[in-house]
Design brief:
single chain, about 700 residues, alpha/beta, Rossmann fold, Four Helix Bundle (Hemerythrin (Met), subunit A), 4 domains, six-stranded parallel beta sheet, about 40% helix, globular, binds adenosine-5'-triphosphate
Length: about 700
């Protein structure tokens, strides 16, 4: 067809107001109007001037004022992305990086991965044209391993700094150093940065509920900038008296809003998966007793163990006439906008993870939120209209809350972070300029663990090549070491599968009503040697099943077959798909490091020996009374009821998890011979032990 003809046919086509072209342009117009109405819009010039004049800027503004979505676009327009440079924005959570990048791409009217993209562990959508890059704080830290001066970025924005994740804290210190080094180079070309010109770095620390002073002081009197006002008001309500049962109170509030308030979706903050699933069931149960026309309430869950695709379901609009009630953990607390949310219900509590370095044990406790968290929760309403926030505690209790959450660096296992710092050439960890120093004993314990794992030399330097290899893999040091050892034991293929399977949660799917049926249909996977080998056989069986149907070329068909297989076997198909993606990625990582991925076939003895050699710090021995003693810490623990070894109780096991919930539990186990420990980890276990 001649070009002229095509042109005229397009021109002659009658414009249908509902055509994709028309609806796209009206959407664009709506977005442009929305952007103009944000409080930050009128501050564009002043903000850019402040960034130009100051190398470090602390920005504080109300939730929803437009900091995260707009500031990067302002910087782009002001020329901060010239000559291929990027603006990097970190988020504490992957769901935030993902959804905000999507929104900003929409606002810029570009495809995700072009001008705007996101990078999170195991999922990178960026391309060489990406200029505004949203990512997790952990991802940026990893990037520093390959490009120490982060030379591709002209500006780095640390968003939601008040959350004080361990990665944010390390970045705050690291970027201080990078900024100093880059300004010393002052526009020169540095070797090791692919010949890129290294310009001074601008650093922006941002939050809605940030004690700016702490950050200003840390950066030697940095300037702070306040963005005043919010787009829509949120009315705050408290209970008159303390509630004895917040789950019950949350349930009543949901139904009260549903029956008394105008239309708009509800977001409820609870503490964890189990609680959320139980409230989901209770909502459904209660709905059955309502008249037909009052039943239009749609409960949806979002928590971190839920695969990404399922998490994304809460962002879709509710069917016409329905009200969404999103049941969330603190995963939905900061940064994100869930369209349609008008009402927030804050239980006032959160599940906090604390690591005890001396016991090598994690504890999960339900604790009151901080003021900053309560403010963030309210801030999830009022983003596309006026909102209301219901806190299930009296106002006087709000004032008693801690201002902010205890920094994660003070309550987590430091071995991964320390390994990364060592790989970045920072040797003096005790003297490192942390904004809040972790305890000396936690640092010493993590250094000792890294030494035992062979990542550090006797004088605490990064061991070559083991330590370097471990730092390059996007895994906890203990898993990286397992891969290195498996290479020597000729079972790398199997270890890659196990590490991938341990990286996802809830491999099995246990619907409450069909628990027995689920167990029976999964029996053929179960290995008497434990959970690791059971997971291995799930993975392998699916692989074989798909291999036999290799003729089905299309990806959609393969996925359909896979879903069917998972359903029959009561396996969580999304978790398994995720595990297969992770497997591919880490296999790529180890191949790049020059490893040859070999398999031990059915020699499970060799494989179990490799597990013992890798995870010797996580061994537990049965006691006379049937409980276990974790050999490293001496803690008395129990096998978790969901483990396949729960009934058989072997003499000695390797565990993956040690967690205090209602009791101290170990889970994800493999049976081993206790004598292997002295044989395979003689530097740690003596024969008589
Ligand atoms: N995914 C989205 N869908 C629809 N609207 C959105 C989306 N993301 C952001 N918005 C709109 O843009 C506004 C500004 O969002 P932005 O995340 O930039 O605010 P913020 O100041 O960074 O807030 P916070 O401190 O809560 O992260 C929101 O209030 C909302 O109206």
């Amino acid at each position: 067809m001649a070009q002229g003809e095509l042109k005229s046919s397009v021109l002659n086509r009658k414009r249908n107001p509902k055509s994709p072209v028309a609806s796209r342009s009206s959407k664009r117009q709506k977005i442009a109007e929305h952007r103009k109405s944000l409080p930050i819009a009128s501050e564009e010039e002043r903000l850019i001037e402040a960034v130009q004049k100051n190398d470090i800027l602390i920005i504080v503004g109300e939730t929803g004022s437009g900091k995260t979505t707009q500031l990067p676009q302002f910087l782009f327009n002001a020329g901060f992305c010239r000559e291929g440079k990027m603006v990097g924005i970190t988020q504490p959570r992957r769901i935030a990086a993902l959804t905000i990048a999507k929104r900003v791409a929409e606002e810029c009217d570009v495809r995700l991965g072009q001008k705007v993209g996101y990078s999170v562990r195991f999922d990178d959508t960026t391309s060489s044209s990406t200029r505004l890059k949203y990512m997790t704080d952990g991802f940026l830290l990893r990037e520093a391993l390959v490009d120490r001066l982060l030379s591709r970025y002209s500006v780095i924005i640390i968003d939601e700094a008040h959350e004080r994740t361990v990665h944010t804290d390390v970045l705050l210190a690291l970027l201080k150093k990078v900024q100093r080094e880059r300004s010393e180079i002052g526009g020169g070309v540095l070797r090791g940065c692919q010949g890129r010109k290294v310009s001074p770095l601008k650093l922006i620390i941002m939050s809605a509920s940030l004690d700016a002073r702490v950050f200003c002081d840390y950066y030697g009197g940095a300037k702070d900038f306040r963005v005043e006002g919010r787009q829509f008001d949120v009315d705050i309500f408290y209970t008159v008296h303390p509630e004895t049962d917040y789950v019950d109170a949350a349930l009543n509030t949901i139904f009260q809003i549903h029956s008394e308030e105008e239309e708009g979706d509800i977001l409820v903050f609870l503490t964890g998966q189990e609680e959320i699933e139980s409230v989901e069931r209770l909502v459904q149960e209660k709905l059955k007793h309502l008249p037909e026309d009052e039943r239009k309430l749609l409960p949806l869950a979002i928590f971190s163990a839920l695969p990404s695709e399922q998490q994304m379901r809460v962002f879709a609009p509710a069917p016409i006439g329905f009200r969404k009630v999103v049941l969330a953990t603190n995963i939905a607390e900061t940064s994100i906008t869930i369209p349609g949310i008008r009402y927030v219900v804050d239980s006032g509590v959160v599940k906090a993870r604390t690591y005890d370095p001396n016991k090598g044990m994690e504890t999960l406790d339900v604790v009151p939120v901080s003021k900053a968290q309560a403010i963030q929760r309210s801030g999830r309403a009022g983003r596309d209209g006026y909102g209301k926030s219901f806190h299930l505690y009296p106002e006087r209790d709000f004032w008693k809350l801690e201002d902010s959450t205890k920094p994660e660096i003070k309550r987590c296992n430091l071995s991964n972070v320390i390994l990364q710092l060592k790989a970045l050439g920072i040797d003096d960890i005790l003297g490192f300029d942390f904004i809040d120093k972790p305890s000396r004993s936690a640092i010493v314990k993590a250094l000792a663990e890294l030494h035992l794992l062979g990542a550090l030399t006797d004088d605490c330097k990064l061991a070559k090549p083991a330590g370097e290899q471990m730092a390059r893999l996007p895994l906890e040091p203990v898993y990286s070491r397992a891969l290195i050892l498996a290479n020597q034991f000729n079972c790398l293929e199997e270890m890659l599968i196990i590490v991938a399977m341990l990286s996802v949660e809830s491999i099995f799917y246990d619907p409450r009503q069909k628990r027995e049926e689920a167990r029976t249909s999964r029996n053929h996977f179960v290995s008497v040697e434990g959970d690791h080998l059971t997971y291995l056989s799930v993975y392998r069986e699916l692989d074989e099943f798909l291999e036999e149907r290799k003729a089905e070329k299309s990806e959609a068909k393969v996925e359909k077959i896979m879903r069917k297989w998972c359903k029959v076997n009561f396996v969580n198909s999304r978790s398994l798909k995720h595990a297969r993606d992770i497997y591919r990625q880490i296999r790529g990582n180890v191949e790049q490091m020059g490893f040859n991925v070999s398999s031990c076939g059915n020699d499970m003895l060799e494989y179990r020996r490799c597990i013992a050699a890798s995870f010797f710090l996580k061994a537990a021995q049965r006691q006379m009374d049937g409980t276990y003693r974790a050999l490293e810490s001496g803690e008395i623990v129990h096998i978790h009821p969901s483990s396949v070894l729960f009934r058989s109780k072997p003499e000695c096991v390797i565990f993956d998890e040690l967690m205090q919930t209602s009791q101290k539990y170990i889970n994800n186990l493999t049976r081993i011979d206790p004598l292997w420990l002295a044989e395979l980890a003689p530097h740690h276990y003596k024969t008589e032990e």
